[in-house]
Amino acid sequence: MPALPALLLSIHFSSFLLVTMAPRSGSQAALLSSVRMAAILDDQSVCGRGERLALALARENINSVMEGGARARVEVDIFELQRDSQYETTDTMCQILPKGVVSVIGPANSPASGSTVSHICGEKEIPHVKIGPEETPRLPYLRFASVSLYPSNEDMSLAVAAILRSFSYPSASLVCSKAECLLRLEELVRRFLISRETLSIRMLDDSLDPTPLLKEIRDDKVATIIIDANASISYLILKKASELGMTSAFYKYILTTMDFPLLRLDDIVDDQSNIIGFSMFNTTHPFYLEFIRSLNLSWREGCDLIYPGPALSSALMFDAVHVVVGAVRELNRSQEIGVKPLSCTSPQIWQHGTSLMNYLRMVEYDGLTGHVEFNSKGQRTNYTLRILEKHRRGHREIGIWYSNNTLAMNATSLDINVSETLANKTLIVTTILVRSNSLS
Ligand SMILES: *[C@@H]1O[C@H](CO)[C@@H](O)[C@H](O)[C@H]1NC(C)=O
Ligand SMILES: *[C@@H]1O[C@H](CO)[C@@H](O)[C@H](O)[C@H]1NC(C)=O
Ligand SMILES: *[C@@H]1O[C@H](CO)[C@@H](O)[C@H](O)[C@H]1NC(C)=O
Ligand SMILES: *[C@@H]1O[C@H](CO)[C@@H](O)[C@H](O)[C@H]1NC(C)=O
Ligand SMILES: *[C@@H]1O[C@H](CO)[C@@H](O)[C@H](O)[C@H]1NC(C)=O
Ligand SMILES: *[C@@H]1O[C@H](CO)[C@@H](O)[C@H](O)[C@H]1NC(C)=O
Ligand SMILES: *[C@@H]1O[C@H](CO)[C@@H](O)[C@H](O)[C@H]1NC(C)=O
Ligand SMILES: *[C@@H]1O[C@H](CO)[C@@H](O)[C@H](O)[C@H]1NC(C)=O
Ligand SMILES: *[C@@H]1O[C@H](CO)[C@@H](O)[C@H](O)[C@H]1NC(C)=O
What we know:
The structure is a single chain. The protein is an alpha/beta fold. The protein has helices at about 5-20, 50-65, 85-95, 110-125, 155-165, 180-185, 185-195, 210-220, 230-245, 290-300, 310-335, 355-360; strands at about 30, 35-40, 75-80, 105, 130, 145-150, 170-175, 200-205, 225-230, 250-255, 275-280, 340, 365, 370, 385-390, 395-400, 405-410. The protein starts with a helix and ends in a 31-residue tail after the last strand. One 2-acetamido-2-deoxy-beta-D-glucopyranose binds near residues 415, 417, 419 and 420.
């Protein structure tokens, strides 16, 4: 084999070392000889999302281009959560604080843990870089806020609404896998109320069997179906829809999962199907090919399943490390920064945290997930979502949504009929909430 496996091995090895290493110095406010940050992982999936490797790649990527040793090395301490729990996360944060980190990244997929991290980081004035969806309901106002690399809930709603607009606002059905769905997509629901078009909303019950919902949608002759669920649940729904003959040309599906590119629907889609979703990846980023090659290689060492492509959370981890380092370097130009070990039991805060947070909000960086820039609320701004449509052997790009809420669609690939856009229909608003125990 060529040299790459050895490189990967050494990365695995060194990230393992980091986990087990004791905090290095007890000195107060030591000047930054290394930029140390913590990443919290919550990946319990069998084959993994590649976040650990993505962090190692980011670190190596940054450390290998240091100019003449003038810059501090980057270290990433990795912590794993076993479950989405406030208690366990508090415990993890109490282990992180004494290490003297400049920032905490993640977790990707644990809402309760994510809020706890934000809260404790807020108390200690350590910037928290989020890589998962916004909390619902929203966190109480935190004086010391965080920044998030994941699209805001409002942006998700606007992007879906923009696609619906390009379909001339058809009646639609929203299928939700979780109750937070309505809070997450509040803006989308509001737009339906304004447009006075019909939106019916259906919740998947605990059995996760979409059959009854899909049959209702079929009986209602609603052709546009929005699915708000993670990639694996979205797959289940589409698989069932295909069995019910609901992936014909009549139906259009819009998926909100940001892991849409990972969905393998070869056994479900045919030339008639319209299954649309989003991707944040910038596939022409200079590191993109090497990124997926490394993740692919590592996946195939440990997993028999076909590598589906990179999970968004791994790319967001990669970008998060770069964003933090970029902000630290900018801050370091204007003041001497030091870190000091903090603890859960003392009221001490990190005195440079507020400055670093200000620099984080000013970062501009072109990452694997596109242009990174934050608005005053710490949300992504000035970025794009690529709109993809599934076909038999993968997907093709059919448009782009700009975060200034401009949609550019490749009209040829969809049967958009401009003459229908001015339709003035009689409209009803219905909201059907199916309680989970009313189905079986
Ligand atoms: C901050 O700047 C000093 C002087 O240029 C440099 O020695 C140090 O490594 C820098 N620290 C970081 C974290 O980049
Ligand atoms: C998707 O959601 C289901 C139920 O909420 C959960 O069991 C599953 O682990 C999730 N899958 C992924 C890939 O996150
Ligand atoms: C992963 O690597 C295998 C073997 O080189 C290749 O056939 C496959 O296309 C790769 N998958 C992705 C998603 O890049
Ligand atoms: C993707 O990356 C390329 C190369 O860095 C860059 O020129 C381009 O602007 C990026 N595209 C987006 C949408 O961020
Ligand atoms: C948006 O990002 C691009 C780079 O992708 C940059 O050139 C432009 O100045 C940014 N626009 C605003 C309004 O910040
Ligand atoms: C439109 O389709 C062409 C050809 O398939 C593709 O090259 C282009 O990137 C697409 N444009 C958009 C905005 O999706
Ligand atoms: C939104 O951004 C795109 C790309 O930067 C630009 O072409 C378009 O004119 C902008 N639209 C508005 C309404 O500002
Ligand atoms: C668009 O709508 C007009 C009038 O309803 C119809 O005559 C035409 O065939 C439609 N075009 C397509 C491509 O569906
Ligand atoms: C819709 O219908 C109403 C009542 O007939 C009419 O006043 C209104 O101008 C119509 N709007 C459009 C956009 O055709």
